[in-house]
Design the sequence.
């Protein structure tokens, strides 16, 4: 009832809210004259009240409804009634492309908007900025929940959406998208086993250079999550080769020198994953950085030590590299 009095309200997200009286919401929110975007993801909204809201609010343009169990059981709710409805059963790129009638590539609508093209004379900045925000948040929560039965969603559009959102001008959106990428590829948290199909979808939808560029940002939160993405994806041999070929070893070696222990830890994890594959990729600057890490974090940095020691152990076990490992003092620091 209180929200219904905020007559200038244009965008509303109640995602993840568990105690909404949807009968009251359906009765009151329909009086909001300027509401353009509504996010009800991860709520228990029922089809009847959802349909009432979508049909009755004339100003409404975009509705987000990811992971709403009651709605997913009723395909009729995807009858958009002239509104853009975002959910598991709709192609988000295709739905949003209706705002860009001149686009030649549905997958490029976000970049078209950011570049100021294909707006059809309409200012979409507020709406698209909000869409970026709710999508990045929704996808992150879906990835963290590790919901079953969503493999096809991730392969068809989820990975592509996260890569697109990584290029947003909004720091929160970039950070959430990076965290989502690092999370959804991992199918076993203990061994950091990654899903080959999801990694392939990421490699298809974007390039390694995009992720490497994000690690150079001054925003430490984004830098940390981008480093984690590279570290996790490097557990896949094909992606690891791409990282090595694109200069990623030098980037990870530099990140391992970070004064932020968590960034250094993820960088060490990336080097560890790379050392398990083609060891040539780690020799170029990586060994010295790993030794320096162990010296720098002798106390309180157990995650750093585990990853750095693991990478050095992999390299030392190979006759071709054991002398190089010994030459930089790795055996001495490992005995400390």
Sequence:
């Amino acid at each position: 009832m209180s929200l219904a009095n905020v007559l200038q309200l244009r965008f509303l997200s109640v995602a993840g809210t568990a105690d909404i009286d949807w009968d009251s919401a359906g009765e009151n929110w329909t009086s909001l004259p300027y509401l353009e975007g509504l996010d009800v993801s991860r709520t228990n909204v029922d089809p009847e009240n959802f349909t009432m809201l979508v049909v009755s609010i004339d100003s409404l343009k975009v509705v987000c409804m990811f992971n709403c169990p009651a709605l997913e059981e009723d395909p009729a709710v995807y009858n958009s009634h002239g509104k853009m409805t975002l959910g598991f059963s709709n192609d988000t790129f295709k739905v949003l492309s209706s705002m860009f009638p001149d686009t030649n590539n549905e997958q490029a609508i976000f970049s078209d908007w950011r570049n100021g093209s294909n707006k059809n004379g309409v200012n979409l900045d507020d709406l698209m900025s909000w869409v970026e925000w709710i999508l990045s948040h929704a996808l992150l929560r879906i990835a963290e929940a590790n919901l079953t039965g969503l493999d096809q969603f991730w392969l068809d559009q989820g990975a592509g959406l996260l890569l697109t959102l990584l290029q947003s001008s909004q720091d929160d959106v970039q950070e959430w998208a990076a965290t989502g990428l690092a999370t959804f590829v991992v199918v076993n948290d203990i061994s950091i086993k990654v899903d080959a199909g999801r990694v392939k979808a990421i490699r298809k939808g974007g390039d390694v250079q995009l992720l490497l560029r994000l690690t150079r940002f001054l925003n430490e939160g984004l830098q940390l999550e981008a480093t984690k993405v590279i570290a996790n994806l490097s557990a896949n041999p094909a992606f690891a080769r791409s990282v090595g070929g694109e200069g990623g070893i030098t980037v990870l070696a530099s990140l391992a020198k970070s004064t932020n222990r968590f960034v250094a830890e993820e960088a060490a994890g990336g080097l560890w994953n790379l050392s398990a594959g083609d060891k040539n990729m780690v020799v170029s600057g990586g060994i010295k950085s790993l030794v320096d890490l162990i010296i720098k974090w002798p106390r309180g940095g157990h995650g750093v030590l585990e990853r750095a020691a693991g990478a050095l152990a992999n390299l030392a076990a190979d006759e071709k590299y054991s002398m190089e490992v010994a030459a930089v003092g790795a055996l001495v620091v490992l005995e400390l």
About this structure: The beta strands are 11-13, 37-39, 62-64, 84-86, 186-188, 193-194. The first helix runs from residue 22 to 28. Residues 41 and 65 are 4 Å apart (CA to CA).
